[in-house]
Structures are given as structure tokens and as C-alpha cells.
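Rhamnosyltransferase subunit B
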Amino acid sequence: MIHIIFYALGTHGDIDPMIALATELIQRGYRVSFLSNDYFSSVISASGCEFVSVGTQAQYHQGNSARAWKSDNYTDNFEYYHAPAFEPAFEFIQHLPANERSLVITLGNHNGAGAAAEKFSIPHIKIILSPNLIFSAYAAHAPLCWTIPTNVPKFILPFILRRHRKIKFLRFYKGPHAAQYMATRKRLQCPLKFQKQSKALLQIGFFPQWYSRQQRDWPANLKLVGFPLQNRPDLDARKQFDTFIKHLGAPIIFTTGTGVQEAFALCKEGRRICEALQVPGIFVGGNQGIEALQGATLCVHMRYIDFDYALPKALAVIHHGGIGTTAQAIKAGIPQLIRPLKYDQPDNANRIYKLGLGTYIMPEHFTAENAIPRLNSMLKNSKKSQALPYYAEDVKNSRAIISACDLIENTLPS
């Protein structure tokens, strides 16, 4: 039997699609181990995978603190969460039985599982959840594309983007936050090197082709399968949601994202938006700052709601721009106002705007005064929008998990 080893860190939005892949492969008869942080141990074990710890819950919380989620902080999440997981992941892959047929599937770059697979010649597949992680010298992602002067000649731009990518890489890994990580890699005799392309046998992109037009310098082994659309049903939350909208009507849904706990600004301005428009609002996720909703008659906070159920019943969604929420909003056919913080979120916001599915406001400008005119315009235009139902129908037909597993099986070692 082939042993498939998954490696994934991040938030639930990152982990859930990987668990769905693992579950499907278990059903197809494979033995699956899943390397991740203790924070996800219960949900991973419940899927039938062998859970292997590569980090503590304390590391998860430190890497996803309010400070770590500041838009200008790209070090804490790496230093306190991802970097400590390198060695335990590397050691697990290194000590796989020599006579065992194995396949490593990783989410993210420069992790211990992928490095060990490369060093010890174990077949390796890379999962990519959002297009901003695919470099192209011919198409910069947001927010970088917003900063490029319009008068830069097109023939020079590829050179600038390639150089920017390498300089950014070198600067990040020379910083003090990466010192321990770099020392660990040196000790394990797998020093980090800048690579133009991944050495994975196969790369699977979890988004459709229309969401990110393929560029001529994309990896030849990259296959796009569509949005995975993972959803964890919660019957109690659904009842609470239905009771709320039965009394107050279709709401605007506000969410901070699964990794963000600080929600004061969103709750404060979101409440003002709802009261000005006289529209109910449901705030999902982060619980630090929900005191801003105290005494509100139109607004309620919920710990969790599965968006596959809730979004089709909503007027619109205001969210952080994570790829999971973005995909569910497209599927629901509702307009979305994105308040992007970092990582893939600005790029997703930019794509949603260009596709005619919504718009965005940067966090420092997110106020009721700025949001209300855009919301009014979106809600008015949604009734006659051709883009919303067109892309919703395409996403509803997604078979991303099945297609990805078919690709994985075709890549398995013989």
C-alpha cells in the first residue's frame, strides 16, 4: 500500500481543503498521515488520517495573534508558527521506511516535508490554494501591481518583477526572524536556496482558469482543478442563523476570517453600516472587540456559520478576502466587499473587482462613510448583474477534490 503524507499549516481555510483531499484518498484505499499543528489534531484525526504533530497550540496562537495579523507584519507568523515546524516535519519524512512506497503532498513553500522529500528523492506534489502564490514575470499580483507606475515600459517589466522576487526572498530569509530557521536547515544539511521553479512532480492549483489567466511562464506541471469549496456543517449555528433572519430579514454577513480574532474595527463600522442602511448584520468569527455590538438591535455575533448554507440567504458579504470565503461568495451569487489584510487577500480582492463580482476597501479606509455608497451600488447592480449568476453556476459544478485526487493517483510511484 502506498503511504501518502500530507503537510499543511495555516488556518482552517488552509487545512480544510487538504483534509478533504486526504479523506478522498483514504476512501480510495490509501494509507494517509497528516503532519500539522496540534490545533488541528481533532479535526484531522476525525477524518481518518494518522495525525502527526509538528507544532504546539501555543505556536499556532502566537503565529496568529492580533499582532501577527497586522498588515505590515510578515515575520511573526513565520518565526513562531511555520519555522518551528520545519525540523519535526523533516525528521518524519527522513525516517520513512526505505522499502515503503511514499508520496509527500505539501501546502506552502520551504517547509520541512518538502525539503526532506527533495533531499531523499521521495515523490512530492505541491498544492496551491490561490494564484498569488504562482510567480509570473508578465503579470504582477496585487498589491504589487498597484504600485507599478503606468509609464514603465512593458519590455522592462519582466526583468523588474524577477529581480523584485529574488530581492524580496533574500531580504526575508536574512532577517533575524529567520535566523533559527536558517541554522536548522544548515544543520540538517538542506540549506535554503533561491529556486525559480518548484521541483515538485506535480502542482495543483485550487482555483478555476477564469479566476487567474494562465501566463506563459507558469510551471508546465501546474494543473488547475477549481475551487475546493470546503464546508463544515453546524446544525445549531444554522438554527440560530435561520431564527435571526426569520425575524429581521436577509442580512449582510461580516467575517474576519478563521485566523483573525481581533474584530473591533469590523464590528464598530459594520454596526454603523447596518444601522444606516437599516439592514440586519451577522458578524462571524473573531471575538475580540464584539463589545462594539452590545445593545445593537440589528446585529448579532456568531462563533461560526457554514457559508455554503448561509451565504445564499444573505444580501452581501463583507470579508477579509481569503480564498475560501471568496469562492463560497461566488458560488452563492452574492456581491462581496473585501477588506483585505495580507497574504493572498489583496490579490483576491483585485480579481473580484475585475470580474465584476464586488469591490474592496483597504482596512485603513474601512469606515461606514466609505462602505455605504459602495454597498448600495453593489446591492442595486446585483439584481441585473450577469457576472454573478454566470460564475456562480460554474463554481456550483466544481469537482475540484475528485479531479485533484485523480491527478494525484496518476502521479503515484509505480
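thats it. The longest strand covers residues 31-36. Residues 118 and 199 are 7 Å apart (CA to CA). bye
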